[in-house]
Design brief:
Mean pLDDT: 89
Strand order of the largest sheet: 9-14-13-12-11-17-16-15
Low-confidence stretches: 1-14
Radius of gyration: 18 Å
Distance between the termini: 14 Å
Number of strands: 17
Strand content: 25-35%
Largest sheet: 8 strands, mixed, barrel
Shape: globular
Helix content: under 10%
Structural class: mainly beta
Length: 256
Amino acid sequence: MAALAFAACDATAGPGHTVVDSFANCHVGMYFADCGGEGAPVLGCDAERDESCWWFTTGAVPREITLVSDCPPEDVCCHDDWPFAEPTGLGAYRLLFALDRAPWDRTREMNVDVVVDAALVAPATPTLTCEGALPDVNGVGPCGDLEGVIQVELDTPALRFVAPGNYYGWVPTVELDAADGAAPRARVCLHDYTDSWGNDCPDAVATCATGGTVTIDAWPLPAGPGAIVSLDVAFAGGARLLADAEVTYVRERRAP
């Protein structure tokens, strides 16, 4: 881990966070990154490239993240309902719309058991079935219309169950993690998405499984396509998601 250095406080840097050399110094997930340190979570975005945003869970931020909110984690939209004093960082809308305004890290909502079964067989056709009324989802999801599974290559890898051709809806996303040599655990959350962005914080509610099982044929997940996954998870109110699929595409992690 690279040594930490205090960031200067300016228009794009929240006071009190620290800086590491790059994402290579971090444990990175879909919407969080742990880069060491002992500070409070801060929200930061890549202003120079794709405006992706992450919760930096200990207040340490890679040097290339030049847009860091100075809002406290308990009130991330402190600037007239936005994380930044200027109408910048529109990628924050995507993160906050997908889940909610609270910080994310390696442990939040890790409620689902993971089973590794090398005998798991890929289905001829990917399937995803929804039972009961799923809470707090927007638009169209992949229930009964699963196109496939995308694996996002991260330190906490993610599997996204996607439907074809929708501009507004939700996708079940499985994040898998095994901290300090422990058995892997998973969180399964229904990520809302939209093709419309704004610079007012959306009032989204995170919808994550309260229990159940994710079965995979290997851990760690393979570097290329071919991982097999079976899903049986429950949500508050009694709804269930059941899926059987094979990863057909792997999205590589961003370069450090």
